[in-house]
Each structure stands twice: as C-alpha cells, then as structure tokens.
Amino acid sequence: MSSDSLPDAETLSVRFWGVRGSIPAAGAKFERFGGNTPCVEIRCGNRLFVVDGGSGIMPFGRILAADPPREIDIVLSHLHLDHVFGIPFFKPALSPQCRIRLHCGNLRGESAEEALTRLFSPPLFPISLSQLPGRFEHHGFKAGDDLVFADGFRLRTIPLNHPGGATGYRFDFGGRAVCYISDIEHSDPWPPKDLQDFLRGADLVIYDGMFSETEYLCCQGWGHSTWQKGVALAQAAGVPHLAVFHLHPMHDDAHLDEVETEIKAAMPGAFLAREGLVLTYRSRS
After folding, report:
1. What is the DSSP string of 212-273?
2. Beta strands in the chain (DSSP E)
3. CB-side exposure of 157: number of CA atoms within 13 Å?
4. 35: how many CB neighbours lie within 10 A of its CB?
5. What sign has the CA pseudo-torsion 71, 80, 274, 156?
6. pTM score, two decimals?
7. Domain that residue 263 falls in
8. Is residue 16 part of a domain?
9. pLDDT tens track for 203-212
10. pLDDT tens column, 12-66
11. In this structure, is residue 197 part of a structural domain?
12. In a domain? residue 2
C-alpha cells in the first residue's frame, strides 16, 4: 500500500473525497479529517468508479470538469440524503457529452430514478436531474448480485444491514481488492461468515465506524457500527488494512486524533479515513 503514489494503469487506487456521515461538518476544527459526506473515487487501472454521491462528490466534480469523462459509473450504497445530495452539483453533469450511470441495489431490483426524481424536483429542488445537460442513466440491481459492465468488468456486491437496506461493494483488479462496507449495523454474533467470505483476500476494507462502543449503546437501530467491530471484522477476514469511515459529524479533529490512537493500538493497519487521502495497490498480475 502507498499513500503518496499517483494512480496509473497498473494500480487499484482509492481517493477519499468525503468521509463524514449524516451531515457535513464545517469549521476549523474539522479541517484535517474533512467535513464532506460520503464519496470515494476508486480506479481499477484506468477504469473509474465513484462510490456514493454525498457532498464530497462536489470537489471531485470540480477536478473532473477540466476534462470530463464521456462515461462515469456512480455506484450507490443506498439513497439516504448524506449519500446522494451532492449528485446535482457534480460538475460533469453540466457537460452534454457526459453520460452518468447511477447504480442502486437496495430497492429489490428497481433503479433509483423514481426516488431521485421525487427528491430533486419542486418544491424540494428547483429542477430534476433530467434537466441537467449531462445524461443520467438509472440502473437497478439486487444487492448480492454481481454487476457486469459492458467492458467486462465484474463488481461483486453484498446486502448490508441498514434501515431500508444498503449495498456493499468489492473492487477486484490485478490481484488486489478493496471493499466498501458503509452504512451497516453489526449483528450478534459478529462478524457473520458471509461478510467475512466477501472480504477475504482483500487489501483494504472501508468500514462504517461512526460510533465508539459506548456511543453505540444510545444509537442501536440507527444502522451504523463501531470502529471496534470494524477491527474485529478485518481481523477475522484477514484484511490487513482498515479505513474507518462515515465519521460522526460532531467528532472534531482533536477527538478523532484520540480515536485513531486507540484504533492503531488495536490494529496497526487500521486508520481513520480523511479527505484527500490516496491509497494505491500495485497489480500483482
């Protein structure tokens, strides 16, 4: 794993554009870890995926706008606001040449088109996604099914325990693998075998560690987990690196520094995700 290399055709790379959960966090006390809600750029060689469209998709879009890709695949964990409210502000959507495919797996096979049209239309929003110059395509699937794209790329998925459902993703490229497991509430017993099997052999798991074990006692049923359960999952599945994600919007940099010290003591390969962090895994094949 490298945190300072630029992605290229021979690497599986991850860049964090938004790492907060629920709502953005603003102010000087939140600058080092960042305040945007979930958005992760994953490149499998030259193949781009965007995971979730929270407010973090806006700064990412500004970078892409200089030379917008012709096609972009956004895979959504689910449709709660913190994961989708940045989509209309994604700069490539202003390019008439850009086709943006939205993939949603937590609606029993239905696409997100109806739900997003309700959200992004008057009186809640001034226009619909279909009125933007870019072309949106909506694709539904059932979490647990593999997604096979036109270029042959296969993306594995798994259903997650979250109110209304959510989808986890596994990106495999060149003998490397990164898993995105956000918005999950841990079960008892923990960790479940199917999730361990899904992660096994991966280099990195991005995991919803919104709460500490103490905080979770007041938040059961909200659909989120703890960094301690993330460590237990990674260790059980033999995953060497854990990025604790979906950070609580009230946890400032000073608090998160203390949390990260505890996390690293429990698992040296674990850390807190932060905006701007780039991780690259060079192909083994």
Report:
1. -HHHHTT-TTSS--BHHHHHHHHHHHT-SEEEEESB-TT--HHHHHHHHHHHHHH-TTEEE-
2. 11-18, 39-44, 47-51, 71-76, 99-104, 135-140, 147-148, 154-160, 166-173, 176-181, 204-208, 241-245, 270-272, 278-282
3. 26
4. 21
5. negative
6. 0.96
7. 11-282
8. yes
9. 999 999 999 9
10. 999 999 999 999 999 999 999 999 999 999 999 999 999 999 999 999 999 999 8
11. yes
12. no
Instruction: Domain count for the chain, please give it.
Output: 1
From the list 180, 181, 173, 179, the residue with the least C-alpha distance to 281 is 173
**Which residues are bridge partners to 126 per DSSP?**
none
Angle at 72 between CA 70 and CA 78, to 5 degrees: 160
Token duo for residue 217: 């006692």
Q: Tokens 């030379």 identify what position?
A: 67
Residue 161 makes CB contacts below 8 A (sequence gap 6+) with 184, 185, 186, 187, 223
Identify whether 162 is part of a domain: yes
Angstrom distances, CA of residue 136 to CA of 56, 67, 154: 19, 18, 21
Query: Residue 135: which of 91, 101, 178 has the closest Cα?
Result: 101
Give the span between the Cα atoms of 80 and 232, in whole angstroms. 26
Report pLDDT digits (tens) over 84-122. Answer: 999 999 999 999 999 999 999 999 999 999 999 999 999
Residues 6+ apart with CB under 8 A from 104: 76, 78, 79, 110, 111, 112, 138, 139, 140, 141, 167
Distance CA 47, CA 136 (A): 19
284: how many CB neighbours lie within 10 A of its CB? 11
- Domain containing residue 116: CATH number: 3.60.15.10
Q: Which residues contact 80 (CB under 8 A, 6 or more apart)?
A: 164, 183
The residue behind tokens 């932060």 is: 274
Comparing CA positions, the residue from 49, 41, 39 lying closest to residue 18 is 39
Rounded to whole angstroms, how far apart are CA atoms 15 and 47? 14
> Apex CA 209: angle with CA 141 and CA 8, to 5°?
65
